[in-house]
Amino acid sequence: MTRYAHITGWGMAVPEKVLTNNDIAHMVDTTDEWITSRTGIRERRIAAPDQSSATLATDAALEALEMASIKPGDVDLIIVATSSPEYLFPATACVVQDNIGAKKAGAFDLSAACSGFIYALNMAAQAIQSGAIDNALVIGAETLSRFTNWQDRNTCILFGDGAGAFVLQMSYEEGGVLSAVMRSDGSGGSSLYLPAGGSRHPATADTVAQGLHYIQMNGREVFRFATRVMTQATQEAIANAKLKLEDIALIIPHQANQRIIEAAARGLDFPMEKVVLNVDRYGNTSTASIPIATCEAFNDGRLQPGDKIVFVGFGAGLTWGAAVAQWTGPVAVRRKLYLPLSYRAWAKARSILRRLMRRLEGLIWGRYL
Ligand SMILES: CC(C)(COP(=O)(O)OP(=O)(O)OC[C@H]1O[C@@H](n2cnc3c(N)ncnc32)[C@H](O)[C@@H]1OP(=O)(O)O)[C@@H](O)C(=O)NCCC(=O)NCCS
Predict the structure, then answer these.
(1) Which of 16, 49, 108, 167 has the fewest other C-beta atoms within 10 Å?
(2) How confident is the model at residue 329 (pLDDT cuts 50, 70, 90)?
(3) Which residues have any ligand 1 atom within 6 Å of their CB?
(4) Count of alpha carbons within 13 angstroms of residue 312, beta-carbon side
(5) Is residue 209 pLDDT above 80, yes or no?
(6) Is the whole-model pTM more than 0.85?
(7) Range of the domain at 63
């Protein structure tokens, strides 16, 4: 029997601290008008001192597990896609594994910059489809504010912190991740990179003095590259799933820049009403942007069981990719039936239930919540 990898849980975590464009205009020579018109970004979230990529990843993962109604002990594999890991090693995924108590899970980080979540989703889906595992946690988590030069107006306006997670579960029912494409072009590596702190340029007082531990970017080059590959990757992933663009209910793109997303939609001749956009509120959260946008699309009632959706992204490397999935929703895999309530009503009921669960957390879930 054919095995399918269904998305049965999703969660997100963003820091409470909001940094607006006007706040940044007090730090560097820029304006709210310039940032909004060039990028669509109005504000972003910044991690508190006690938050990190692993703490945000953990919060998002727990929400996703709760949504999928599976226990951490049932997770076989944790992949954390990140460009701002907790440490060079061990993997952020191992920190998450310990935090949530996923005792039988393998765990590793995946480095493909902002395309990382699509790469990780594909890897986890393949592992489920092959029969190697049954349940996976796929997480995108970032605290890029820690690698941002807050005196560089070219980059500091763009990035934000946050995490998003999916639970993937095996089912024999058709659906879940249907296709994916992953591409790279290492010759464009210097368009967007963090030069120091690795084996090429280990951290020294000198690299720090030169600011080589901060993100460096050629914005125009990245912009040109992004608009080209978003369209291509989307078309390829749809064709690989043996679908047509008309079959797609929603595109959930990497949230880097509203102009890039609009250019890609124009290139595809796809209506913007069917494209998820939240870059205005979070900026570019790199690997976390696609799962965060998915959570919000679900909460807004924009995802219905059976919908075919596209995730598409690009990033440093250069890397890019897309995946097509058929939306299942929570519990459908486990119980093999769809919830009778509308998804919007279900989301509301879920949030009330979650509040109740939190009150009973010590009793019911022990250390897992
Ligand atoms: C970064 C980006 C917003 C810049 O917009 P742009 O229209 O390309 O602007 P340019 O780089 O051409 O710069 C135009 C001018 O604005 C200036 N400028 C740059 N940042 C500025 C800012 N925050 N405020 C005001 N002026 C700024 C530049 O110095 C330049 O001035 P100059 O012409 O005197 O040299 C845009 O290139 C972009 O979004 N690129 C993609 C980046 C991205 O998505 N990275 C993440 C990939 S995952």
Answers:
(1) 49
(2) confident
(3) 30, 34-35, 38-39, 114, 153-154, 157-158, 192, 217, 219-220, 222-223, 256-257, 284, 315
(4) 27
(5) yes
(6) yes
(7) 4-338
